[in-house]
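Sequence in, structure out.
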Amino acid sequence: MKASFKKSRLAMTVCGLLLSLTMFSSAAHANLIANGGFEESSNPTTTPTGWTNIGHSDGVIPYTIGPLPAYEGNYFYDLGGYGDASGPVGDGIMQTVNTTVGTAYKLVFGLSSEDVRGDSTLRVSINGAFVDFDLSSTGTWFLKGFTTETIDYVATDSVTTISFVETRNTSGGYNDPLIDCVVFDVAGAAGGCGSSHIPEPTSLALLGIAMAGLAGIRRRNKI
């Protein structure tokens, strides 16, 4: 009976360790984008951590500054923000990540606009392939909520550049595009805005730790 109990406990421990490793591995591939939620930054004119500005050096803006409904976290990114409040065509932000050729990826992000007056267009490019989002103002003055946008992409290179650029603006900076919670990862992977992608060697190290733990349990059971 005692030996049977030990085997049962060992089996339960094995299942628990494997389940924990599986859950950790899933979380480890949450987002290839660094600082996708813009929460690692707070300066309104300094380039957000992990990103490269295109055009003027705009920073992040806190949701507490006005009535804009929060999409995620405490900060969002305004194309044509405080770095250049006139919001000229050409302002944007970009980031390059490692990808596997032939693998399907998905880009997901929250999109809104200042919605004071006029129209603008946001061009989202993934290694040259792009989608344009036309943003027409309804005059709500920062009250328009975010929509969740999704773009599917199959990698054609080992590195992929993702960019968000304002390509049209008839408002003089009063309807600039706003983005938040940018996620880019393998299609079907669950993840949030934070950057928590861990390279495969780390996952292998975790597996080694789990196996070492099991070996220790076996030794104790033999005593």
